[in-house]
Amino acid sequence: MQTLQWEDAWERTIATKDKAYIEGLFEKVKNDESSSTFIREAYNHTGALLVTVLIHNRSNEELSLKNTPISYTNACKETFISSFTLPHSLPAKTSMPWTFIFQNEEDEHKEVVLELVCN
Question: pTM to 2 decimals?
Answer without folding.
Answer: 0.85
